[in-house]
Amino acid sequence: MDKFFEKTLSSKEVYKGRIFEVLNDEVELSDGLIRPREVVVHPGGVVIVAQKDSCVLLVKQYRYPVHSAQYELPAGKLEKNEEPFGAAKRELLEETGYLAKNWESLGFIYTSPGICTEKLYLYKADGLYYEGPKPDEGEIIDCFEFELDQILKMVKNGEINDSKTICGLMRAFKL
Amino acid sequence: MDKFFEKTLSSKEVYKGRIFEVLNDEVELSDGLIRPREVVVHPGGVVIVAQKDSCVLLVKQYRYPVHSAQYELPAGKLEKNEEPFGAAKRELLEETGYLAKNWESLGFIYTSPGICTEKLYLYKADGLYYEGPKPDEGEIIDCFEFELDQILKMVKNGEINDSKTICGLMRAFKL
Question: What is the pTM of this model?
Answer without folding.
Answer: 0.97
